[in-house]
Amino acid sequence: MYIFTTASILFGAALLEIRGQPVNSPSDNSPRIRCDYTFFKDAQGWFKLHARPATWHDAQAVCHSEGSSFLYPANEVLMDTALHLMTDASISTIHTSMTVKLESVTLNEEGVFLRAGLNDSFPFICKYKVESLLLNECGTVDKDYQFYNGTAHCYKLHKNKANWFKAEAACKAEGGQLAIINSQKEAAVIVDIFKNNPADQIPGHFEFGKGVAFIGFRSLDEGHSWTTINNETLSEAGYAEFCPGEPNNAAGNEYCGSVRRTGKLLDDPCTRELLFICEKKPEEHDN
Hints:
The chain is an alpha+beta fold. The chain is about 20% helix and about 25% strand. The protein folds into 2 domains: about 5-130, Mannose-Binding Protein A, subunit A (Mannose-Binding Protein A, Chain A, Roll); about 145-280, Mannose-Binding Protein A, subunit A (Mannose-Binding Protein A, Chain A, Roll), CATH 3.10.100. The chain contains 6 helices and 15 strands. The strands form 3 sheets. Strands 8, 9, 10, 11, 12, 13, 14 and 15 form an 8-stranded mixed β-sheet that branches. It has a 4-stranded antiparallel β-sheet with strand order 1-2-7-3, sandwiched between helices. It has a 3-stranded antiparallel β-sheet with strand order 4-5-6, with no helix packed on it. About 35% of the residues are buried.
């Protein structure tokens, strides 16, 4: 192990003196961005410590998939936040950043930066910061949730692709659910969501992946029938219009539901990584 600098030791030592004081503590009265992130008032952001060790690149990918960024404690407030989370979880070392020599920079429980290999696995912290703490009309500070008059519901197109199960978990963490199309009017809303997110604004190289998103239905009997995550058949939910020739189970394991830019439904492998659409009612938020 290599200690970064004498300054980093002094910086960490000074923070250890601060940690006994209520300089930066979790707030229970703030709006939540996700139920699995904790808001710290002084840091003006939400943070999540992932206790399961990961390599540096995998840790970056996890934060990105959650719509957040990798925490590098560049100032005293962020350092105090990191040490607070580490202490609460009994974690001694986390990934933080990368050096110009392509080495990982870790942070230990004493506030000291150390070098490690990028392929070494450590816990890590993701952070989510927003420009404003004011709730929007969707009952969240997440500006990506947009209210649509056609259904009086809010929707968010996640551009960070995920498999169906991770997509469902992400929507729940944000206080919503994978979108369910209940009518032609709601199908038109889905079309509008895609129009507001043109393909050239979505990361990736393949056009197909920019025009299909997971939503809240799947098959539990290998494609013989389809139900929503609310345990309704598509007909009971109010919309069952598939693309021509679909569902066709072309890959032999297409048991999760998706929607094209046209508003028509598809079957896709549950493990395929796609865009996904979350839906929430305006009153579904935490204060």
